[in-house]
């Protein structure tokens, strides 16, 4: 019985079995290759999913940029509100991903009385503001009637109605009428 519990020392015969432990994955090297194959398949699947997401994000971005340009109505004027508080009126068009182009440009000028008027009882009346529309190009530095604005500086823009006060004042200015005042 001792013979079955104790193994004889290796004498170089081919009948002795090696005492190496069995692999943890099922007892053969074939199982280890299957785990590696599964990991590589998962990696390829993950790369495909990431690639599809990147292409989809790019496609949505390009579609939005083209779709936004369709929102500008070419037959109307637009009001462009900048982050510094200035507002310009004109024809808005896209140039590239960084700049927009504004042409046929107008802006509001506020003129305030320096001396307040006196009322009949001797008290001072509230100074009246006169708001008028000015055409770009008549300033001291003589700019052309074209402006390129960084998209990042635009807070928002809107299409103007044809019967709005600003559009009517522009129409009057173009037709040669002197009255460019905008009611406030």
Structure description:
- With 184 residues, this protein is an alpha+beta fold.
- The protein has two domains: 27-70; 78-114 and 128-175, Roll (SH3 type barrels), CATH 2.30.30.100.
- The chain has three helices and six strands.
- It has helices at 2-5, 29-69, 165-175; strands at 78-82, 87-94, 99-112, 129-135, 146-150, 154-159.
- Strands 1, 2, 3, 4, 5 and 6 form a six-stranded antiparallel β-sheet that branches.
- The chain is elongated, with a radius of gyration of 40 Å.
Topology, please?
Elements: H1 2-5, H2 29-69, E1 78-82, E2 87-94, E3 99-112, E4 129-135, E5 146-150, E6 154-159, H3 165-175
Antiparallel strand pairs: 1-2, 1-6, 2-3, 3-4, 3-5
- Number of separate structural domains: 2
Fold-level CATH name of the largest domain: SH3 type barrels
Poorly predicted runs are: 13-18, 25-31
Task: Tell me the structural class.
Answer: alpha+beta
Number of helices: 3
What does the largest sheet look like?
6 strands, antiparallel
> What is the molecular shape?
elongated
The CATH architecture of the largest domain can be named as Roll
The CATH class of the largest domain is Mainly Beta
What string gives the helices and strands in order? HHEEEEEEH
Question: What's the number of extended β-strand segments?
Answer: 6
End-to-end distance: 115 Å
Helix content: 25-40%
Mean pLDDT: 77
Round the Cα radius of gyration to an integer and report it.
40 Å
Share of residues in strands:
15-25%
């Amino acid at each position: 019985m001792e013979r079955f519990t104790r193994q004889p020392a290796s004498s170089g015969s081919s009948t002795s079995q090696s005492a190496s432990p069995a692999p943890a994955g099922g007892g053969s090297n074939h199982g280890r290759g299957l785990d590696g194959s599964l990991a590589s398949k998962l990696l390829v699947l993950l790369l495909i999913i990431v690639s599809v997401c990147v292409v989809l994000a790019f496609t949505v971005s390009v579609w939005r940029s083209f779709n936004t340009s369709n929102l500008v109505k070419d037959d109307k004027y637009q009001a462009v509100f900048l982050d510094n508080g200035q507002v310009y009126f004109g024809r808005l068009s896209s140039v590239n991903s960084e700049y927009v182009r504004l042409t046929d440009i107008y802006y509001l000028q506020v003129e305030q009385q320096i001396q307040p008027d006196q009322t009949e009882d001797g008290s001072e009346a509230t100074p009246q503001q006169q708001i008028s529309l000015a055409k770009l190009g008549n300033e001291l530095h003589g700019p052309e009637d074209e402006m390129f604005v960084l998209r990042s500086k635009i807070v928002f823009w809107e299409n103007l109605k044809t019967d709005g006060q600003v559009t009517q004042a522009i129409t009057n200015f173009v037709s040669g009428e002197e009255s460019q005042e905008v009611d406030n």
